[in-house]
Amino acid sequence: MKIKIHSILGLKEVLGGRDVEMIVPDGTTVSGLLAGMIEIWGDSLSPHLFKPGSDQLLPYVRLMINGQTIQFINGMETVLNDGDEVLLLPLAAGG
Amino acid sequence: MYTGGYSGKILRVNLTDKTSKEEKLPLEIATNFIGGAGLGIKYLFDEVKPGTDALGPENKLIFAPGPFTGTSIPCASRMAVTGKSPLTGAVGVALTGGYFPAELKFAGWDAIIIEGKAEKPTWISVKDGAVRFHDAAGIWGTMTFDCQQMIKDNLKDQNTRVICIGPAGERLSKIACIINERRAVGRKGLGAVMGSKNLKAIAVRGTGTVAITSEEKYKTARSEMLKAMKESPVLYSAFSPAGTPMVVDLTGALGILSAKNWTATGEFVPVEELGLDAQNSRKIGKEHCYDCPVGCSQMKLAKTGPYAGILTEGPEFETIYSFGTETGVANLDAVIAADRLADELGLDSMSAGVTIGFAMELFEKGILTLADTGGLELKFGNDQAMIALLRMMAYREGIGDILTDGTKAAAKKIGKGSEKYAMNIKGLELPAYDVRGAKAHGLNYATAYTGADHNKGYAFQEIFGIPVPWEVDRFAIEGKGKLTKWNQDVRCVTCDCATMCAFILDTALPATSTQNTAALMEAVTGLIFTPDEVQKVGERVNNLAKAFNIREGFTRADDTFPDRLMTEPLKDGASKGQLISKEDLKTMLDEYYTDRGWNPETGVPTRAKLTDLGLGYVADLLGL
What we know:
The structure holds two protein chains of two kinds. Chain A is an alpha+beta fold. Chain A has helices spanning 9-15, 30-49, and strands at residues 2-7, 19-23, 62-65, 68-69, 85-89. In chain B, 42% of the residues lie in helices and 13% in strands. Chain B has a six-stranded mixed sheet, with helices on both faces. Chain B is globular, with a radius of gyration of 22 Å. In chain B, a hairpin with a 2-residue loop joins strand 10 (178-180) and strand 11 (183-185). The chains are: A alpha+beta, B alpha+beta. The interface between A and B is large, with 27 and 46 residues.
C-alpha cells in the first residue's frame, strides 16, 4: 500500500522534499514505517527522530496520521491504511 | 520598601494642562500585579470609569515595563501598553520589545501614565526626571520612521528612544498601532488613543541603572535561565536563525494556516512562496532586542517587481498570514512591502491584512463593487490593490475610510449581510491559526479579555506538541477549559506582567516559567513568591481584566466565534472536516468558567473567586 509522508523544516531537507511516498506491506505500523524509512535514509534521518543509540523517539518529534497525533490513536503500534498521510514534524517555535 | 527591580516611581503626565508629577508605586500593587499589563490593568480598572469614550480625554494609556527590564536578565526588555481599546471597547493591552522599555527603566520609571488631551499636536520628552512638552506641528503627518529620526535630531541625541504614531493614529484609525523603532505596539487600536490625545510621540533617555537586590541570587537565577535557554532543543539551533516564519511551514502542514478570509484554509497553502525557504531567500541580517542573545527578528529585502529594494524588519509569521495567505497574496516581496508600509503608516499589520481580506471576499461576492472601491479590483491575490488600500486606510481615503476601523465597524457600515464575513472576536481581527483544527487555541480566542488574541493564552501544546502541563489532542473538546485557564494565567504573569519574551516561555521554560519568575523576583526585587503565587498573579490580572469588560457590558455571548468557524468544516489539509460547533463551544466554555471559579451561566467571576484573589473591592463594584 502507498503511504504519503509530509515533513517540514530540517526533516524535509533530509527526506529530499516536503512530500515523499513509500510503498509498504499491508498491516504496516508506524513503527514499521519508521524502520523502513531508516533503511532508506539511514544515518542522516536517525538523529532527527531517535535519541542517540536508541529506538526511542526524540521528545517533541511529532508523528500524525491524517492530522491526528499517534499518541491519541495507538501510538507506534497504530496500523496504517492505504493512502494515509503521515506528518513528520520537528519542533518549531515562534508565532 | 523597594530594594531592586522597581524604582517605586510612576510618572503621571496630564496633556490637558501640560503637567507631570512623580507618584509612588505602592508596594502592594507591585506585589499583586508585578508589572507590565498587571500594572496597566490595575490602573485602568481603578481610574477609567465605565462607559468612558476610548477616544476621549478620560481614557488613559499606561506604558509599563517589568521589574526585570533594564537588568541583564535575558529577553525581558519588553513593555505593555494598556488602555481602553477603541476597536473592542474592552481592555486593550499590547506589548513591544526593542530598546524603549529598558530606556524607560534607566530613566527611573516603573511606568508612565498618560491622561487628558493636548490642545494641539504635542510630543513629550523624558530625560531621567525631567519632562518637557514640545509642539508637534513640525512632525505631525510624518511617517513613523521619519518621526523617530526627526525627534532624535531635534534632541541632538541619537541614543534617545522614541515611540510614536503615524498618519493612521493621527486620523484615529481604530486599528492604528504605536511604533517603537521598527517594532509595533500592534493591536487593539492603541495608536488611535495616542492620536485622540494629540500625542505624536514620547522620547525617553535615561542615565541610571536598575538595582539588583541580591547579586549572589541574581547570578544563580540568571545562570539557571541561560542554561534552560541553552538546553532548549529549538531556541538557538532553529528559532534564532529562522524566527517566527518557520510557523508558516508548521501551520501549513497542520492544515491550520488560515487563508482567503478563512474560506480556503488547507486548500490555499503557499508554503513554497511564503514559507521559511522563501523568507531565507530575502534575509539580509537580524535584529536583537535589548539584552537578548537570541535575535529572532529577521531583516529582509524585497527583490522583485515594484517592491525590489524595500527593506523591512520581519515580516513575522502573523504578518505573513495577514498580508499573505489571508489576502491570497502568494508574493513574498509584496508582503515585505506591505509590512514596511503598515509600520510606517502606523497600522496594525494583522488587523489591516484581515480587514483587507474581508473586503476582498465582499468584492468577490459582489457586496462591494468597483464603484465602492474607487476602481480597485479587490480580488484575492491582487497585491497591488492590497498596497493601495493600505495607504487609503491610513489616510481615510475612499473605501479606506470605512475599512480603517476594522472588520466589525466596517461590516456595520457596509451592511448587506457582510457581518458574517467579518472575522473578529469582540471586534479584534483573528490571528493566523485556524482554530477549527486547534480547539484550545480557539477557546483562548473566544475568552481572551482583549478579543481574538493568540498571545493571551497560546496553546503551544496544540501548535508545537509540547506536552506541558500534559499531552493534548488538538482536535479534542474535553479538557480544553482547564488547559486554557493554565495557558492564560501562566502566559499572563510570565509574558505580560513580568514582561519576559513569549518565545522564551515556549522554547526554554514551558514547564518552569513560574519557578523561573519566582527565582528572578527574589533575586532582583527581594519580593518572595512561590511558583503557585506567581501563577496566581496571572489569574488575578485575568480576573481584573474580565471585571473591567463586564463593567463595560460584555457578557457570555461575547465569548464566541464568527459563525464560519462553527458551521463550515475545513475542506482540505491535515485538519479536514474539523470545526468547533456551537455545542462544542458551549461545552468548552462551561468547563472554562467552572475551572475559573466563575458563574458558568453568565461567565462572571464569583465574589468568592474575586475575594480569594484579593479583589473584594471589585466584587463590590460589580454588585456581586
